[in-house]
Amino acid sequence: MAKEYWIGDVQAGLHDGSEVELKGWIKRTRGSNKIRFIVLRDSTGTIQCVAKREDLGDEIFESLKGALIEASLVLKGSVNADERAPGGHELIVTDAELVGGVRADSPFPITESAMVAADGGETEFLLDNRHLYLRTSRMTNMLKIRSSVFGAIHSYFRDKDFTEYQAPNFVAGAVEGGSTLFEVPYFPNEANPDRKAYLTQSWQLYAEAAMPALERLYTIAPSFRAEKSRTRRHLTEFWHAEMEVAWASNAEIMAHGEGLVRHIAKTVIDERESELSDIDRDIELLARYADNPYPRIRYDEAVETLQGLGIDIEWGQDLDYSKEKVLTQDFEVPHFLTHYPKVAKPFYHRVDPDDGNYVLCHDLLAPEGYGEIIGGGERTWSEEEILARIDEEGVEREPYQFYIDTRTYGGVPHGGFGLGVDRVCSWLSGADHIREVIPFPRDSRRVTP
Ligand code: ATP
Ligand code: MG
Q1: What is the CATH classification number for the domain harbouring 182?
Q2: Residues 317 and 426 in one domain
Q3: pTM to 2 decimals?
Q4: Is the pLDDT assigned to residue 310 strictly greater than 90?
C-alpha cells in the first residue's frame, strides 16, 4: 500500500530509466482509441504518462480511457528522460489500476475555464467548491508555503528557549474591544439564563498570567474576531502567533519581531523556491525582507507623512487599512511604527513614562501596501496603573480580576506581540486576498464548506 515513488523525484531525474509505480490523480487526459496521454499529479508535481492499448490489453486500456479528471490511479512503467515531455520526463505505462473513479454524470467541477474566469483570484464558485479547489496546483503551492511559515515560527522561538504555551479559546472578557467579540451561549442555567462565553480574540491575557512561570513563552493558535467590515486582510478566524517576554522593553520586543519575520522570509526562500516561482512571486523581494534591517518610525512622523500626501487623518486616530496601504506602498522593507497615542490603544498598553500622551507599543507594517502584520509592545504592569487605566477606559473590572491579580503578586515589566500568520503568508506569497492562503477561509459571509 505504501507509496514509494514521488512524481517530483521522477521529474528531478532520480529514476531515469527505472521501473516505478506512480500513485496520483489525473490532472488532464487526452488521446485516441489506441493511445492515451495522462498527466498524473501527486502532491509533489505532475508527469505525462503514455498508455497504449497494444501494451496494456483491452480491459486495462478501456478503464484508463474512461477515467476522468481527478480519478485516482496507480500506474506502473518505466521512466524516460525526454526533453519534449512537459518537465523533461514521461512514464511509459506497462500496468495500470483505476483506484477511485469519477462518474461521467458528475465530472470534477473545477475546470480550466473556471480557473481562467477566476484569473488567479477566487470567484464565489471556487469558494463554494473550496474542498475541491484545494487540489489545484495554486493551492498546493500556497499550503506548502504556509507550512514553512508555521515551521519557521516554531523554530525561531524554540531556538531562543521560548516555551510553547496554550491558553483557553472560551474566555470571559475582551482583549481587543467589544465590537469584534463572538458570543457563545455557555450552559445557561436558572440562576444565569443569559450565561455566555466569548471566543478568544488573543492569547495575550492568559499568557501574561503564565509569564511569571515561564518568562519567555509563545503560541500559534486561532483567534476569533467578528470583523464586520470585509477587507482583503481580515478573517473572522485567523492564526495568531503570539509571544510574551518578562523583563523586556519595547525595543527588545521589536528586535524579536524583526528577527522572527526575517527568519520566516529566509525559511520560505530556502524551502519553497519552486513553489514561489510557480506562483510568480519575485524571490529578490523576499531576499530583501530576509536580509535588510527594518526601520523604526514614530506614529507622529507617519501621520505627518500621510497628511503631506493629502490623506485625511487626525492625530489620535488609529491607522486603518486605507492609510496603511498608502503609507506602505513604497516601503522597501517592513517598518515599525512606534509610540501610538494613548487614546488609540486599549488599557493594557503601557503609558510612556517620558510622555503620558503615548504608549510604548509598535505595529510592524509590511511593504507593497500589505500593512500591519504585527501589533505589540510593553504592558501596563503595576497594579496601581492597571486599575487606573481600566477605570479610565470605563472597562468592567470583574472579568479581568485574574489579570489584575497577575499585577498584585510581583508584577514586572514585560511585553509581547501578536503576528497574523495568514497575513504574513498572504504578503510573502504576494496574494491579492488573505483568503488565498488558508484552506477554508472564514469571513462574515461564509462558514461553508
Ligand atoms: P487591524 O487594525 O488590521 O484589524 P489589529 O490592530 O486589530 O489589526 P492586533 O489586535 O494587533 O490587530 O492583532 C495582532 C495581529 O493579528 C495583527 O497585526 C494582524 O497581523 C493579525 N490580525 C488581527 N486581526 C486579524 C484578522 N481579522 N484577520 C487576520 N489577521 C488579523
Ligand atoms: Mg482589528
Answers
A1: 3.30.930.10
A2: yes
A3: 0.96
A4: yes
**120 CB neighbour count, 10 Å cutoff:** 12
Q: Which CATH number fits the domain that encloses residue 88? A: 2.40.50.140
Residue 389 beta carbon below 6 angstroms from any ligand 1 atom: no
pLDDT recorded at residue 294: 98
Would you say 425 and 145 are in contact if contact means Cβ atoms under 8 Å apart? yes
Strand ranges inside 196-351, DSSP E: 196-199, 216-224, 237-246, 296-298, 335-338
What does the DSSP 8-state code read for residue 390? H
Report residue 62's pLDDT band, with 50, 70 and 90 as the boundaries.
very high
Q: Express each pLDDT in 238-278 by its tens digit.
A: 999 999 999 999 999 999 999 999 999 999 999 999 999 99
Evaluate if residue 122 carries a pLDDT over 80: no
Residue 287 domain-assigned (yes or no): yes
326 C-alpha to ligand 2 centroid (Å) = 18
Could you tell me if 94 and 191 lie in one domain? Answer: no
Q: How many domains does the chain have?
A: 2
**Per-residue confidence at 438, pLDDT binned at 50, 70, 90?**
very high
Which pLDDT value is given to residue 339? 98
Domain that holds residue 401: 131-437
CB 353 within 8 A of CB 359: no
Whether the predicted pLDDT of 75 surpasses 90: yes
Do both 222 and 318 map to the same domain? yes
260 located within any domain? yes
> Do 94 and 135 sit in the same domain of this protein?
no
Q: Ligand 1, atom 8: nearest CA belongs to which residue?
A: 372
Question: What does the radius of gyration of the chain's CA atoms come to, in whole angstroms?
Answer: 27
Residues 245 and 302 in one domain: yes
Angstrom distance (rounded) from CA 440 to CA 422: 12
| Closest ligand to the CA of 257 | 1
Q: Is the CB of 415 under 6 A from ligand 1?
A: no
Strand pairing of 361-366 and 335-338? antiparallel
Q: Looking at the CA of 371, name the nearest ligand.
A: 1
Query: Stretch 422-442: mean pLDDT, rounded?
Result: 97
Q: Is residue 443 part of a domain?
A: no
In a domain, 237, yes or no: yes
